[in-house]
């Protein structure tokens, strides 16, 4: 009788754990969707592996949700075959979580303002107006100006007919100094680098914490 009570307690605990597991899985899917949207504009400045991270987060959340349902079913049955399959499935999820964490933390060091600035300079020097407009969209969205500062429009060897995302005939030092909104804006290279590092840190921390919860 005592053994039956213990088995019942274990089953209830497993169901409760898998219920929490399912809630965390839905949260991961939601985070992945948010980060997909956040990386639409700066995707040109990041590696493909990092750009795919939000997608991996959605996949991880979806698989984890399936695993939580399978765990609840296994808790209600005594099938050793299903239990073994569930353990293997969880091991795959743990490997995926570890991969996401590693990619996130490694990309924090790769998101340097110098690398991003070089790509931005190529955009502004390009003859393709779409490339230039893409950079101006970055300026508008992140409230930044120029590559390193607004003075880039005066000092650099490119002509866009704009000061930041503002249309003017010629961008001069006087125009920037006389405009408080322009002179106080940060450069876009460091701004985008900080955004990418923030997203990488957040994804890495979420994935690592999720990994630790599963392990314990």
From TrEMBL:
Keywords of this entry: Membrane, Transmembrane, Transmembrane helix
Membrane topology: Multi-pass membrane protein
Pfam families, alphabetized: Tetraspanin
InterPro entries registered for this protein in UniProt: Tetraspanin/Peripherin, Tetraspanin_EC2_sf
Cellular localization per UniProt: Membrane
Transmembrane segments: 12-36, 56-73, 85-106
One GO CC term on file: plasma membrane
Superkingdom of this protein's organism: Eukaryota
Gene3D superfamilies linked: Tetraspanin
PANTHER family: TETRASPANIN
UniProt-recorded name of the protein: Tetraspanin family
């Amino acid at each position: 009788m005592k053994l039956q009570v213990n088995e019942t307690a274990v089953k209830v605990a497993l169901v409760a754990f898998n219920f929490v597991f399912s809630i965390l899985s839905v949260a991961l899917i939601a985070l992945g969707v948010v980060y997909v949207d956040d990386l639409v504009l700066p995707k040109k400045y990041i590696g493909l592996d990092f750009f795919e991270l939000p997608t991996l987060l959605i996949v991880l959340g979806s698989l984890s949700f399936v695993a939580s349902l399978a765990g609840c079913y296994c808790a209600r049955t005594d099938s050793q075959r299903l239990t073994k399959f569930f353990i293997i499935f969880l091991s795959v999820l743990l490997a995926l979580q570890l991969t996401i964490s590693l990619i996130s933390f490694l990309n924090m060091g790769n998101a340097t303002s110098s690398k991003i600035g070089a790509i931005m300079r190529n955009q502004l020097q390009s003859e393709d107006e779409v490339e230039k407009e893409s950079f101006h969209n970055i300026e508008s969205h992140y409230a930044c100006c120029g590559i390193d500062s607004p003075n880039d429009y005066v000092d650099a060897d490119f002509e866009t007919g704009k000061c930041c995302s503002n249309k003017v005939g010629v961008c001069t030092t006087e125009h920037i100094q006389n405009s408080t909104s322009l002179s106080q804006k940060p450069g876009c290279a460091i701004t985008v680098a900080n955004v990418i590092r923030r997203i990488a840190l957040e994804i890495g921390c979420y994935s690592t914490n999720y990994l630790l919860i599963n392990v314990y």
